[in-house]
Amino acid sequence: MKKPHILLTNDDGIESPGLKAAIEAVMDVGTLTVIAPSYQQTGAGRGLTGDKQAHLKAADFTIRGTRIRAYHGDASPALVVRHCLKTIFRDSKPDLLVSGINYGENLGFNITCSGTVGAALEASSFGVPAIALSLQTCVDYHHSYVEQDWSTAVHFLQKFSTLLLEKRLPPDVDLLKIDIPENAGPSTLWRTTRLARSFYYYRDIPEPGPMSKFGAGRTVVKPDLERLDPDTDIYALAVDKVISVTPLSLDLTSRISLSELHSYYETQHRVEKS
Question: pLDDT tens digit string along 74-113?
């Protein structure tokens, strides 16, 4: 039987140890192709930015004695994925995209800033099921390749990759966002969560004002734990210390009844005119 084809990417760059850990997690599951930004792209979101004159370059990747087909390019994670799907995979789509393993958890309102999630969303827009997997990491290490224990993230990435290849995602689920607590182990419980309507990361700027530089201050983890619902991704990781598995949809439409919303604004319009 033909092996499934898995495309791997990240936002930490082609040299990231987290990317190599992801390769090890799924190399026995399917045939692999790696496509990643040439350098660190944390915070790129789903932006389609990069050097428009650049092109994909081959990368020398050998994992456990096996040579892996790999490329990198001077572009954002989402643009690298889009370009790959329109060139390398122009005739047949991969069966799964894996984005990560990311240095730093991606939770709550902050996920739209995430290049890890952005790359997975881009693949999903082409009909490719995707996983965006992140490991809780000290904020100071989000932009550097500090040594991490990837073993638990590898375990759960292999688990969920296998599940997604065996069974299609349900309707309205385009990707799974998975966040691993820093001290989790293979026996740590996992929970299906929803996205918290709250920030997880904040930018702490001393004496903020119009002349403050965009790079001023530092990013801090500061969730409002008292106002969090227990079924959210932030609560699962930060309070209960369990693995958060959040189903995400490309459809950003509010879940409110459209007819109710129409009636609401129509009523308001009549009141304003009277």
Answer: 999 999 999 999 999 999 999 999 999 999 999 999 999 9
Residue 249 and residue 172 in contact, taking contact as beta carbons nearer than 8 Å:
yes
Provide the greatest CA pair distance for the chain: 77
**Which of 161, 62, 44, 150 minimizes the C-alpha distance to 101?**
150
Inter-CA distances, 180 with 6, 86, 213, 245, 246, Å: 21, 32, 33, 9, 12
Q: Contact, 233 vs 196, CB < 8 A?
A: yes
The confidence score (pLDDT) of residue 176 equals 98
Quick: pLDDT tens for 164-175: 999 999 999 999
Count of CB atoms within 10 A of residue 117's CB?
28
Question: For the whole model, what pTM was predicted?
Answer: 0.93
Adjacent-strand bridge partners of 218 = 204
DSSP assigned state of 237:
I
Q: Where are the alpha helices (DSSP H) in 95-205?
A: 115-125, 151-166
Query: How long is the chain?
Result: 274
